[in-house]
Amino acid sequence: MNTFAKVMGAVTASFFLAGTAGAQTTLPGTGKTVHYAQDDSLGGNYVVAQITSQALKKLGYDVRLSTMDTTLFFQAVSQGDMDLATDVTLPQREPGFRAIAQQATLVGDGMIIGGGINGYLVDRKTAVANNITNLQQMKDPKIAGLFGSDGKAEMISCDPAWSCGVVVDYQLDKFGLKQTVKPIRGKYEALMADVVAKVRNGKPAFYYAWSPSWMTNALKPGSDVVWLPTPQDALPPDVPARGSALVKGVVGCAGGADPCRMAMGAWNYDTVANKQFLAGNPAVKALLEQIRFPLSTWSEWEGAISKEGGSVSVVKKLSDAWIASNQSQFDQWVATASKAR
Description:
Blueprint: H1 3-23, E1 33-38, H2 44-58, E2 62-67, H3 70-79, E3 84-90, H4 94-99, E4 104-107, E5 117-123, H5 124-129, H6 141-144, E6 148-149, E7 152-156, H7 164-174, E8 181-184, H8 188-200, E9 206-211, H9 215-218, E10 225-228, E11 246-247, E12 260-261, E13 268-274, H10 275-280, H11 282-288, H12 295-308, H13 312-325, H14 327-338
Signal peptide: 1-23
Organism: Paraburkholderia phenoliruptrix
Pfam families: OpuAC (PF04069)
């Protein structure tokens, strides 16, 4: 081979190699870590965290998932120690979020399409036997006494670390129920396990809950329990209302009321992320803006967790099953996010 041919061969090879290298696209998350928090209240939100983590890994990110209370997450995300969480309950957590709004922001429109509901429930047996159709009837010591003693009802409220307890306390005061209703706050899951046992044994029970959740799968509104409509919309001054608390089509509303006035308007699991982190990771922002799930899907997850337990293996099985059944949508989320700049 002459010198000219050797030179041309080398040039051709260099162009070929350059073209090949250019075709190998680096994933947006290569060499980067996402510090991802999930709340310490187990539910379908844990399944979402697994699905989102898998999508982030497809984008090349190393995902470090931690479990912590939302109050601690707010502090961590404002300091840049955590990057994001996809299960911040709003509007209940609005005061805490507002305090860190300079460092963190909301992403997307909430993980539950259409949002969820929350309010007060009693066992259906006692409600039907005593014609209990609204929360205001708890002012009557005879009615309240059915759920406690000495004319005062014991109502299972929220975990001490949860902001929903503030809403409950405010409403009990606003509705004039503090003299006849005693809210019980403790580890919610343990208290609710006792409630489930009571209802299944035909005993009275009064508690605060939300849907979608494992509670409304363990005790189904309409058959096991009923929602008690509240007398009016009422939220603490620092908790914004997301529309009226009147909600249409609520299954199991006492007395068949429709719409049913719940404790507040729709709530949602919202995504909160550190602003600086998002600015440097547009692919993550684009991914989070897409991920949402129907209420029916959340209910299925909550039901499975209620029956099978909330172990890591159960949560992983549910997330893997969802991805397998919705592979094209999952891949589209990742493909769209990978193009973000």
